[in-house]
Request: fold
Amino acid sequence: MPGKSPDELQAEIDAQREELAHTVDELAARLDVKSRATARAADLKDRATTDAGKPRPEVLAAAASLIAMTAVLIVWRVRQGGK
Reply:
C-alpha cells in the first residue's frame, strides 16, 4: 500500500469495518429464526384481518370453500366405499 497517507489507510480501514459490521448484522438477522417467525406470523395476521381485527371477507370465503370441498370429498369417498 505504498503511496497512501495514514489518513487514507484509516479511511479504508473504517470503510471495511462498516462493511463487516453490516454483513455481521445481516447474518445475525438471518440466523434469528424466532424473530423471523414472529415477524412472519404478524405479517400474515395483518394481511388476513381488517384494521378492526376481523377476518377479511376473502379469507372467510377461502375458508368456506375449503370446508365445502372437504365435505364434498368426504361424501364422495363414503359413497365410493359403499359400492
